[in-house]
TrEMBL record:
Pfam families: Ammonium_transp
Boundaries of every Ammonium transporter AmtB-like domain copy: 31-427
Keyword check for Transmembrane: yes
Main location, first listed in the record: membrane
Family stated for the protein in its record: Belongs to the ammonia transporter channel (TC 1.A.11.2) family.
Claim: Transmembrane is one of the keywords in the record: yes
TM ranges: 30-50, 62-80, 120-140, 147-170, 190-206, 218-238, 250-271, 278-296, 302-321, 342-361, 381-403
Name of the featured protein: Ammonium transporter
Chain intervals for the UniProt region annotation (Disordered): 465-490
Cell location: Cell membrane; Membrane
Keywords recorded for this protein, A-Z: Ammonia transport, Membrane, Transmembrane, Transmembrane helix, Transport
GO molecular function: ammonium channel activity
GO CC terms in record: plasma membrane
Length: 490
């Protein structure tokens, strides 16, 4: 491939003199740009998924906190996140330096992840990974966490948790990378990083008030399904694009992702059927996501037949993993740890058991890889387990420290008030009560005038008390508000 050289024989880096695109294949660049856009779509997918899983009175706040976390990550990644996570000039094995601060020195250089694409594109693609991981973590705020402190947490978490994990696995001098860890698309940084961080956040935040958990159920199954489909579509860019080119390894990763997801979905549905004696759409969605999670570190590493086994194992492990939060007493409301944390661990372990070189090599860059057990590289299991233990321990304790430190700052306490938790995290008090599907008032022929606060006649008594107190505090009480007894007959 022709390149524009300077007088010293090196590839030029001045765009006014040299064609910086010359060393790179346009098709590979186009594929990764599209893949980055697909991964970006996973953020609203997570927002819809979380919104559907929550009760209606807190659904909008979960969408807001998820998409706003993306705004925080874009700034953090541009500011110093990319440099700390993937700078190729850092000499330590823990975290990068600030050589790429503000995207300096990234215009036309080959990326540290692959010489197939330029570093500017690589940094943009990797930003989506950090954004998706942060969006997953922030589900820990569900139904009782304040949103502004969660955004402060997102910035520091991306800096002190995600960036080191990414550097370990993918940095040129990261200790896990040099140790030989096989982590294709983020079993450590993304899946363990999100699942274990959410567990730590939930632990510090505390359990939801159990008196408010009566008749709890996901409020919108259609949103859950829509979010799952958007995630599935984005995951093909997540796993397929991690081959960093339009090549056979990318195609294999897409195949393996679908195989693992669908076998995990069937497994989860069968496990749920044995208890409920009916088929569950939420179970299908949960199984699909657990399979895609397990495929993240393994899709470009293991064989298709191993992906089928991985799907079954991930479906079983993640399904039974939903019981862990009851055993340890941590209210992981959206099941981030049971699906992402456990699924990522299972996928990383499978890399040691399969990983033949003929799956890893077709990207045109990693020919001659050591592989796993199918290549008789039996020490790979110890390497994978060491990485899992280090990632889990560091992620949990560092995330817990960040959460607790933020909680101690005046004005940034993490937990919403009991009143806000009871009414819901979305709107003003009157709107919150009227949005609760357990609190309702029979329709009347004539519409109410503006400013009228209607106290629900059916539902939770605590809601009615709070709505009545809001009515009494409202301006003009007595002339513009309609009064109902606080505890009408049920």
């Amino acid at each position: 491939m022709s390149t524009a050289d300077d007088s010293s024989g090196n590839v030029g880096t001045d765009p006014t003199v040299h064609d910086l695109n010359a060393p790179f294949n346009a098709g590979d660049q186009a594929y990764i740009i599209v893949s980055a856009a697909m991964v970006l779509l996973m953020v609203p997918g997570i927002a819809f998924l979380y919104s559907g899983l929550a009760r209606r009175k807190s659904a909008l706040s979960l969408i807001w906190v998820t998409v706003m976390s993306f705004s925080v990550v874009v700034f953090q990644w541009y500011f110093w996140g990319y440099s700390l996570a993937l700078s190729n000039t850092a000499t330590n094995g823990f975290i990068g330096n600030l050589d790429k601060f503000g995207l300096r020195n990234t215009l036309g250089e080959p990326s540290p992840g692959s010489p197939l694409i330029p570093e500017l594109l690589y940094s943009f693609y990797q930003m989506q990974f950090c954004a998706v991981t942060a969006a997953l973590v922030i589900g820990a705020t569900a139904e009782r966490g304040r949103v502004v402190p969660a955004m402060v947490f997102t910035f520091f978490w991306a800096t002190l948790v995600y960036c080191p994990l990414a550097y370990w696995a993918w940095g040129a001098n990261g200790w896990a990378f040099k140790y030989g860890v096989l982590d294709y698309a983020g079993g450590g940084p993304v899946e363990i990083g999100s699942g274990v961080s959410a567990l730590a956040y939930s632990w510090v935040l505390g359990r939801r008030n159990e008196k408010m958990m009566l008749n709890f159920r996901p409020h919108n199954i259609s949103l859950i399904t829509l979010g799952t489909i958007l995630l599935w579509f984005g995951w093909l860019g997540f796993n397929g694009g991690s081959a960093f080119g339009a090549n056979l390894r990318a195609t294999m990763a897409c195949w393996n992702s679908c195989l693992t997801a669908m076998f995990a979905a069937m497994t989860w549905c069968l496990l749920d059927y044995r208890l409920a004696k009916k088929w569950s759409l939420v179970g299908w969605c949960s199984g699909t996501i657990s399979g895609l999670v397990a495929a993240t570190p393994a899709a470009g590493v293991i064989t298709p037949w191993a992906s089928i086994i991985l799907g079954v194992v991930a479906g079983v492990a993640c399904n039974f993993g939903t019981k862990i939060k009851f055993m340890i007493g941590i209210d992981d409301a959206i099941e981030v740890f049971s699906e992402h944390g456990i699924g990522g661990i299972v996928g990383l372990i499978f890399n040691a058991l399969s990983a033949p070189e003929y799956i890893i090599g077709p990207d045109g860059v990693n020919m001659g890889a050591a592989g796993g057990w199918l290549n008789h590289n039996y020490r790979q299991r110890y390497i994978q387990v060491a990485n899992i233990l280090a990632a889990c321990a560091y992620t949990f304790f560092m995330s817990a420290i960040i959460v607790k430190a933020i909680d101690l700052v005046p004005g940034l306490h993490l937990r919403a008030s009991s009143e806000a938790e009871l009414l819901g995290m979305d709107d003003d008090p009157a709107r919150r009560v009227r949005r609760d599907y357990l609190a309702w008032t029979p329709a009347e022929r004539d519409p109410k005038e503006d400013g009228v606060v209607v106290v629900p006649q059916h539902g939770i008594a605590g809601h009615q008390d709070l709505a009545e107190s809001a009515r009494l505090r409202a301006p003009g009480t007595g002339s513009s508000s309609e009064h109902h007894p606080p505890h009408p007959p049920q």
